[in-house]
Amino acid sequence: MLGVCYYPEHWPEARWREDARRMRELGLRYVRIGEFAWSRLEPEPGRLDLDWLGRALDTLAAEDLRVVLGTPTATPPKWLVDRYPDVLAVDEAGRVRTFGSRRHYSFSSRRYLEESRRIVTALAERFGRHPALAGWQTDNEYGCHDTVRSYGPEDARAFRAWLERRYGTVAALNEAWGAVFWSMEVRSFDEVDLPNLTVTEPNPARVLDFYRFSSDQVAAFNRAQVDILRVLSPGRFVVHNFMGFFDQFDPYGVAADLDLASWDSYPLGFTDLMPLDDATKARYARSGHPDVAAFHHDLYRGVGRGRFWVMEQQPGPVNWAPHNPSPAPGVVRLWTWEALAHGAEVVSYFRWRQAPFAQEQMHAGLLRPDASDDVGADEARAVARELAGLELPAATPARIALVHDVEAAWIGAIQPQGAEWSVAALEFAFYSTLRALGLDVDVVPAGADLTGYAAVVVPSLPTVSDAALAALRAFPGPLVLGPRSGSKTASFGIPPELPPGRLQELMPVRVTRVESLRPGLEDAFTWEGERFAAGTWREWLEPVGDGGAAAKGRFDDGGGAVWRHREVRYLAFWPGPAFLGRFLAHIAEVAGLEVRALPPDVRLRRRGPWTFAFNHGPEPRRLEPPAGARAVLGGADLPPYGLAIWDASR
Ligand code: GAL
């Protein structure tokens, strides 16, 4: 269940056998290679040199290692971009992105699509049936370094064609966008430009369509590779490595063409970058926020329709965050087990050996630059030993679903209305609160079948598709709708019936006014006899007719705070941590779920009859084991950054 990312092209060939032997001895089984190697695979236009990669595959195979081969399209070589400058992406400021790092191509470049097909075909023809080949990774981290959206001539051409397919006539486009405002009407699709370099904010409907288009382009680019691999490499899986806290394209759309999902887990880098207060950042600087990796495991398990890997696991300090602390002793082991607890099929460390050259020379590997074992290698070895002889039970669905929607993030970014508004932060707050109550969570896309869940939370869902409405309507249990749900039409307008628009069917209220609040400005409200404060965002609602919606909590000025209609609740404000803790515990109780008061920093996760307990903090913690359970690993006393596993079957 363990693997590693390896770059044979970075090391003398004489070294490969020794590396492969040490990988196997360490307990690794999978090796991902090749994803940045285009300049070595095709040193001159049309002159392929694939033999060295064949020897690398054979060397790994000789140690019984299984290979995931990356397609090298994240790094088009120098000759390619010089020959075909139209492949280069253009940034929002209109500057052509230049050669010299990576991801410098546009997803809409027809030439680049053709070149990608050519190199993928060559690789798949040569290695598609290699006995050591387990599967393929398409490209690498689509969108990394802000590369989903490109603003060049190729992008404008493709955007116009996309709009024509969507709207049919330019009159329909003008109408949908409300383009009469500020005389923004156009007479033909050819007159539509990309939404950058405008004097002040461009029409939000135009931007939303550009974001949708850009997301579709990623899926189409990926599909072109998958189509080739399916034909030339039968029986091998195709995966992509998605990123954390990244919402510029819809991962569900890309994953529809994949066999499983994977993601790249760098908990310390993410924690340093997240919008957390300084004390929280400092507390988790060497272990990562307790929910940061877990959230993404639960997200990408859903993206992969139940199947996911961690393709890149942080093994030591990284190089790319503002601050790059070292994981505390035991934390690499903790992260590895945590991923497995959440259902990961494989955890693969990035990278085998720290490179002493180029951009990532300050990024740790399992081995130091001199090839001696670094701390990460020791901890990976420890997990491999613990795993030996264990058979992990199949992962089971959680009882609570959290609805995740990439359009919610786009709309919030395009029109935040208040500087602190962030759908990612709101989702994370819901998720983290549920996890601190000892609950398992499935992160699901809007429109997913909700049958079987005991409770569903929707942090915010501004646009409501037919599928999303049908799934929510069919769900009989407690359903929580967060602020701004149903607040926009599909073409980024205010619904004619006022928000929550289509959701009025489930929650018969209308939002008559909203306000955003600067930090420090808060309104007090009472819910279930307890006092809370709400800042950041507030809404005023009134019931529609005698539909039966009622305020169950009120602000001091009389406005409803928590609205209820049958099993549906609507929050007319940005919920802070104190309220969310009480409220979600109440929802869990209504749903018949057992809530546990966990010690600080401790999180639980079930996998079949097994319960995993993780201590993400620097102090030892004690946790009563589940009744009648047998210890598989560890015990009731959780050491700092330690874990325990309990088996409750018989
Ligand atoms: C990932 C990327 C890797 C490497 C790594 C460093 O985003 O896929 O190639 O750059 O980060 O942490």
List keywords for this structure.
Immunoglobulin-like, 18 helices, binds beta-D-galactopyranose, nine-stranded parallel beta sheet, 18% strand, 650 residues, globular, single chain, Rossmann fold, nine-stranded mixed beta sheet, alpha/beta, 31% helix
Give a written overview of the molecule:
The longest helix is centred in the middle third of the chain and has 29 residues, at 204-232. It contains 18 helices and 26 strands. It has 650 residues and is of the alpha/beta class. Among the domains are: 400-590, Class I glutamine amidotransferase (GATase) domain (Rossmann fold); 606-647, Immunoglobulin-like (Sandwich), CATH 2.60.40.1180. It binds beta-D-galactopyranose (GAL). Residues 140-141, 144, 264, 266, 312, 318, 320, 350, 360, 363 line the site of beta-D-galactopyranose (GAL).
